[in-house]
Amino acid sequence: MNPCTEQGVPTPPPVDGERYFMKAHFMVPQILQGTPTLDGVQTLTMLALSELVTGSLQSANYFGTLAARMLFMLGAHTCSEDTEYPISSVRGLDPRVQRQLRIIFWLCFTIEKDVCIRIGQPQIFTEENCDLTLPAGYVEQLYAGMQIHHCENEPPNPLFPVDLRLSIIKSRAYSALYSFKALKKTDAELLKEIRELDDELERWRMSVPLEWRPTLSFSHETPDPNVSMHSVMLRLNYHLCMTIIHQASSRCKSWAKGQGGVMDGVSSSLALSVEASRSTLLYIEAAEHVLVDGIFWTLIFYPMSALLAIFCNILQNPSDPQATKDLALLRTATSMMERLFSRQPFAVTEIVHIKLVADFVSELYRLATCAIEKAWNERSV
């Protein structure tokens, strides 16, 4: 049966989210003083998610950390369907509660990976301490669920904000490339980690059904036939993973000193990072018509990280012919982000932050323009 032909779910009534958020916030001391419960961890998770989508990353990290510790106490980090001796079974939890706790675990896992990458805080959920066995049938059911989501009907299984496999790759990338231990790795070790993560990301990409599969590089000549909010998040997270994996090659000491040997490998890795950033901006522009109102704070990290990567590439190679094209892309992205600003229902307290973002993006464009003009003037002398 085609899910698009089924009757849609009735639109729920409007909810005063701010009022409910404050009520839940007032309950936090009571939750922390009591015995860990499903209701308590769900409350903390909803607070973390609410803070994340409104751009309050430090608060999202705080509530996410509290939820993580409570999940640990409830055994949700080791209780998968394939675990032979799940800890929570010893506590006699109802199987439905166990399943819900596991869903909350994966939601918190996803939130944490995004927050860690954005603010640089260490991870709590690690492979050493958590059972990262995916839910039974997850991969097989994922894209069927996306098809239903695409048609705006209720999916039969939980749809997480990001493909859980991509969240696991983010976790591994952070540990291997950006953790305190990773910062001490040699050039050879760093490049080895980058190659292995790139291979893992490519295996993920090839596992995605063709109709949903992100292209290695996006352009208007290769449009997305299934563009929707879920496909937007899928592609943006793929390009983000590509960026954060290959951007780490800039830490290679031999590249920073201009030495030979690994220079070619580092340069090609950085080129992949910049190309992924271009694809991010081009895809957001192409998918702008499906972006829902009020998504600004959820989406802002993707174009901002892409803008910075492209800006740095322009500064490094201002006389390259591609720099002029990238400058035009920055200008297009600036206009696109202004349109996203206008669609965001801002509170008065947010206006200052939005203006800072807008001014920062405009300044990037101005500085990039100056760098290119200076490079061309020097060449013409």
Automatic annotation (TrEMBL):
Residues 180-207 form a coiled coil. Its main location: nucleus. Keywords: Coiled coil, DNA-binding, Nucleus, Transcription, Transcription regulation. Residues 60-141 form the Xylanolytic transcriptional activator regulatory domain. CDD domains: fungal_TF_MHR. One of its GO terms (cellular component) is nucleus. The keyword Transcription regulation applies. One of its GO terms (biological process) is DNA-templated transcription. InterPro entries: AtrR-like (IPR050987), XnlR_reg_dom (IPR007219). GO terms for molecular function: DNA binding; DNA-binding transcription factor activity; zinc ion binding. It is found in: Nucleus. This is Xylanolytic transcriptional activator regulatory domain-containing protein. It comes from Petromyces alliaceus.
